[in-house]
Structure formats: C-alpha cells, structure tokens
Fold each of these.
Amino acid sequence: MKSDYIDRPAVLAEVNAAFYRYEQALISNDIDVLDELFWHDGRTVRYGATENLYGIDQIRDFRQQRPSKGLERLLENTVITTYGDDMAVASTEFRRPGSERIGRQMQTWVKLPCGWRIVAAHVSLMA
C-alpha cells in the first residue's frame, strides 16, 4: 500500500473531528448526535460491553434506554488511521473516574454521501 494512501492530512483531520464530536456527544449523552454519526442501516453493528446490537434500530433503542449519568471518561492511546479518502479505523482505551477497569473501543468509519459515519463499533472492558 502506498504511504500517501494512508493518513492523508485532510482526511485524517475530518475523521479526527468526527471522532471527537462523537466522544463529546457520548459523554454529554447527546443522543441526536450519537444517532447522526452511526450509519442508518440494518447492517450497522455495535458490540457493547454487555450487549450485541444489530442495525440502527437496536442501536437507537439502546441509546434511549441507557443511563445518562456516569458517562464521563478519559481517553488514552487513541489511534486513528485513514485509508484512502473514505475509510478509517479509530481505536482508543478509556478510563472512567472511580474505576480501575480499562475500556477499549474500536470504530470503523466510512465516508458516505451524508458524511463520516460509524458502520461498526466494539466496546469492551478489561479487569
């Protein structure tokens, strides 16, 4: 793969903006932005710490039902890599205040006609 294909500065800046917009929406429980940033399709998958969600409808239902308190977290070891102009993977670890557990999150982002959207996500916790 050509090195100029990976992490093109303009594309990387776009994905970073989308990723951190998602993060702000997550910790502030901005359900509208969280919904906006996931691909609105039945093939979207989100594996959570305690749930497996298939399709945008299940993801929306989860967002509506989850607690809106205790969402603060600190990110560590965030790596965002873009491939060409329309695909990226974002990986990060996170810690919540008062918890020793380390969370891990991976997202696959694709640039669609409506903008950058998460098409697959995985969240897990380590002891």
Note: The chain has one domain: 3-125.
Amino acid sequence: MPRATAARLDTAALAALGDLELSLADQGVPARAAGLTVREFLATSPTLDEFWTPLTVLDGSALARNADAIQAWATAHGLELMPHGKTTMAPELWEFQLARGATGLTLATPGQVRIARGFGASSIQLANALVAPHALAWLAGELADEGFSFWCWADSIETVEAMERGLETSGAVLPRPIDVLVELGAPGGRTGARSDDAALDVARRIHASPVLRLGGVAGYEGSLGHDRSPGALAAVRDYLDRMVALFERIRAGHDGELMLTAGGSAYLDVVAEAFAPAIEAAAGRTADDSSRFVLRSGASLVHDDGFYRGISPLGGELVAAMRGYARVVSHPEPGLALLDGGKRDFPYDEGLPVPLHTTEQARLTSAPGTPLTEASVTALNDQHAFVRVRESAPSGAALALEIGDVVALGLSHPCTAFDKRRLLPVIAGDGDDTVVGLVRTFF
C-alpha cells in the first residue's frame, strides 16, 4: 500500500511573514516593536516579560514534542496525518507538521482552502460540502495544477446536484473531476448521511456524475461523545465500524484511489482500532492497493490543560503548548481577584481557564512561581476573569495575589484560542522565555 508523501508549503510565502511590519495594532507586542518587521524584532532577542497582558503564548519545545508524538503515533498505526488547519489558521504551524511527515491539510471552509493555497498547500481535504458556485469556479481553476490534490464531502444526493448545478451556472471548466468523499453521519451527530443505505445512494450518485469522482468515505466521530464513559466509547466505536463497513462495500466495486478518514483529537485511539482491519486488508490485497487511511487530528499539536487533557488517549505523550497570561487589576473583597483577561482573550466554551501559578510581580515567565492550589476561575466577563478561593479550600485559605501580579492560566480547547489573536508569541520553552517566533493567524 503506497503512502502519500508530505506536501510542504511554499518557502517564499512563509518567509514573507517575517517581512510583515509590526504596529501598535498587534495586540500585546512591546511598544518598541512598532515599525520593525517580525524578523527585525525577533533579532533583538525579546523576552516574554516585555509583552503586555492579556496574552496567549505558545511554547516552542512543547509544540515540537507534540508534533513528533502525534506523527509517530499515526505512522505506527498505519495512518496518514492531515491535521485540521482550522484549529490554528497559522501557516507556520501547518508547515511545522508537514515538515514532520503530515501528508496534507484539512480545512473547514472554502475561504480557509483559498488561504492555504495562497501558501502553496498542495494536498487539501475540505471537511465540508462545497456548493457555492463562485467557490466551485475558483476550485476549477486551481485543479489545472496537476500537483494539487483536493477532496470535499457530500452527505446527500441534493449536495451532489448542487455541486453540479453550481459548476454549470458559474461557467467553470473543470480540467479534471472533483474528488468527493461520502460523509456518513449518525442520529444526534453533525452532518452526514443518517443511514448506510442513504450513504450508498450518495456514493452511486457521485460515481455517476460527469464532473465528480467518488473519493472514499469520511466522517466525524467527535460529536457522538464528550467523555470516555462506556456509553460514549460504544457510540463512537459503532459509528466508526459503520464507516469501515461502508468503505469496504465501496472498495469492492470501485477501482482507483479511495480514502477512509475520521478523527478529531479525542477518540483517535478508537479510530485506529476500528480502522485496523481495513488497513490490514488493504496491505494484504496487492502491493499497489491505493487505499488511504487518514487521521485529521488538529488539536493534538497544541493540546491543552482542559478538555483534551482529560479525554485524549495520548495524555502521557502530549503536553499543553499554549498558555494564557493575565494581570491582577483588582482585589475588591477577600478571596476574590480580578484579572485583565476574559472572554475576548481566552477560550471558554470547553471549560474556564485554570490558574496554574503566579509570577514575580509585574513579570511574565514560563517557570512556575507560587502555586494557586486553592484558587479557580469561576467566571469570565468580556475582559475580566474572576479568581476565587475554591469552595473546597480549607477554612481561612486566602488568595496569595497582589495587584500587579501576573497569573499563568491553563487553557482549554485550542480551536477557540487562536481566533482571538492575530499574533501569538512563541517562546523557546524549557525554562527559556526568549521569544523566538511570532505566529500570524488568518481568521
């Protein structure tokens, strides 16, 4: 079974990010950075204590550890990795994984696909339907590049017909058919054909289309569970087994490359177990079997101190590579401190930030300071976090927080952390707070 090769981004486009001029509109950067390019500013060896709070910071050593760990894990289980780029929308971080063996990118919207193409991405899976005529016309032009591989999803015959209609009304001329994966769903899930028979009907309709090519089977298991309870794991496994069965039925009557793809970052172990028989069968058929088995884990690069820390099966191998920092600006009553970062600054949809430690007064550092073992964030306003003594704290416990102290915060859910920042500093890590990168996002 041949494995796809890594698809790197355009080096010139990535290098151009270092030529972007910094300004005071770049939230958190020191005032002295204004007027310098990213490259010029980094050449001055800035340190984290120069940056203004509230702040979200990436740890370079942790990113490298996670990227290596998830790539090695996927490879060991016979899976390609096409990480979901919508998590970060940061081409520099996309390249970080492509350089380690990821075979492409997954994205969620046509606009995201266009951004990735602008950075030279040559292997893209759109984990969504593509029915807008103008987006289809743009894609038709991109498919003239024979080195560009693209897949999108469809979960109904109506979706297929909308694609055909959109291509026709746009006047686009396709140089080759669009690869479309049948999306299988489940009751209570997200998108996806709700029954196996309906999914087969979609597959047949794609196969009959003059402008589309049946590319395989796709799905998302993460919406079927939110923890590792027996019920959630059983629902996820049943769904993945259905995906594999559908793939094998299509494989039996179809020549050419077919992809089977699933996976967020919560149940990737169950994905690997469910896909294992199909991977073994493909390896045993012929040396040139063109089946591809793809994991789309996006949050594993950054991991977190909340949701994924609690649910990921790779908890011992992945570490949180993002952290929030906020400063104490008010101590209005005993046992309560207000920080200068809130909903506009930190993710909160999968759990509130967790106070990890304080730093020396008015100084940022990645090294632990005073542990906040008796404290928790109990609420967020737009630009404030409420830090209180835990209800379970011993009687008389007090917050060891002074106005001006900086609190390091563990964050939950990378997918809603990056969209709040246009620029994120990257520290060297391992106790070194030198800022070695400024990651630009494209939301």
Note: The chain has two domains: 59-303, 322-413.
Amino acid sequence: MAIDPAVAVGAELPEVTFSWSASDVALYHLAVGAARDPLGVEGLRYVDDANPKVLPTFATVAASFHATQAPAVSFPGIDIDLAKVVHGSQQITAHQPLPPKGKATTRKRIVEVQDKGSAAVIISEGVTVDETGEPLWTERSSIFAKGEGGFGGERGASSKVVYPDRDPDRRLTVPTLPNQALLYRLCGDRNPLHSDPAFAARAGFPRPILHGLCTYGSVCRAVVDDMLDGDVTAVDDFSATFAGVVFPGETLDVAVWEDSDRLLVTAAVADRDGAPALANVVLGTRG
C-alpha cells in the first residue's frame, strides 16, 4: 500500500534547521515577478542587497531553498511516485514580519489523509521558530496524489470560500514569463514537472507547468503591491487552493474583493478563457 493512514496520520517528520540570506530573498522575489519595472522604487525594495522587504510567501521555500535534487514523496506510511503528485493547497500564517536573513527550525507532521476515491489528499502542518524559539510562521499544505485513493478513509471537510455577490473591487493583470518556472526552480523546487518536457508528458501535461507555489507567490505579491501599497508586513495570513495549471508565459486575471479585514481573491488564466488557477484565496491583514 502506497499510503497507510494508520502510520501516516500524526507522524512527525524530521526536524529541519536552515538559514537564508538577503540574496535568497531577492531571488525568490524575482521568481514571483517582483521588480518587473527596474525603475520602480517600491519594487526595487524587494531586491535590496542588504535589507529587502520579505513577502510572507517566502516561507514556502525558505527551508528547501538550497535543494538541488527533486523532492521525494516518502514519509512514514506514505511512498508515492512524484509524477502522480500535484500541490493541492497552501496556507502561511506569519507570526511576525519575516527577517531578510536568519536561521530557523521547522517541525512538521502529517495531520490528515483524505480519501477522495480516485485520489488521496495528504495534509501537513509545520511550525517554524527562530534561534530564540520565537515562532516565525505556521504553514499548512496539502498534496493531491492521483490514483492513491480508495482506501476507505474520510473525504474531509470542504474549505470553500464564499465570495461576495457583486463585481470585484479590483482586477489585476499578472503576467508570467516563458522561463519563469526555470527561474523559480532556483528557489529549491527541482521537481522535473516544471522543467522536463518528457516528465511533464508522463504526468499528463503537454509541456512543463508553472509551480503552483510560484503562482501563489506571484498573486500574493501583486495583491500586496496593489491593495496594500506594497506593505508586506500588513499580511497576517495567505491561503489558496490550486484550482488548475498555469503554463509559463500565460497571464493571470486576478479579481479582488474587500471583505472587512481580509481580501478575497481568485486567479484565472486569461489566455485560456478564464481557466481557474487559484481559488479559495484569502489574504488576512493585521488589525
């Protein structure tokens, strides 16, 4: 059995201690479309040599930033072919503004394995603390494993966001570069699904796709820049469901609704008649 829920659920994953630099942060920001205008003063703050501002979504790559090998989907009670796996959802809660450089430790565990019939969803939670033990961020993510369901588990609760019954308050156009997946993979995600045409074909795609977390970071950055005047410290929480694929070079149509102290967001692919890219997107702001 590729998944044994009795072993997987509650399993603690190996503790990871890592460090990052201002250059790592700057590269991540370039990979999610920051500083596209080299004369834009606010955009250049994302790539400052010594003290760049830091998007909370940098937390999704910080621990594995210097990885050079493709990840393995091998955890206690779980052993799945990487070609069967796509990212399902991601949430980052920032407990404080992320520093431009530092050292931290992440402790992560498997909290749930859902049985969707034709697929399984594996959900993990992790807490990252700095060298003094103060929490920096908490993350919750899920991966969708095709062909691994049917083991008799629970389907899991829905996390669908209810959007206002009105036009969005803002629409943003977020372009991606044809080589953006190749740039983003330098942030530590070496999954060949995003760089190897033959591997992408084996996974059922006509060509390599953009990393879901690249779309996630790009949309967060665009919303922060437009709706929060570029203030990355105003973001308390950012969550999204990966609703479809994005191919490098496509343009995202991002809709934003203001809803009290949070922003509700969707992202669709303009090039393919609004095919969904991100759904159930919530950006919570600090009060």
Note: DSSP finds six helices and twelve strands in the chain.
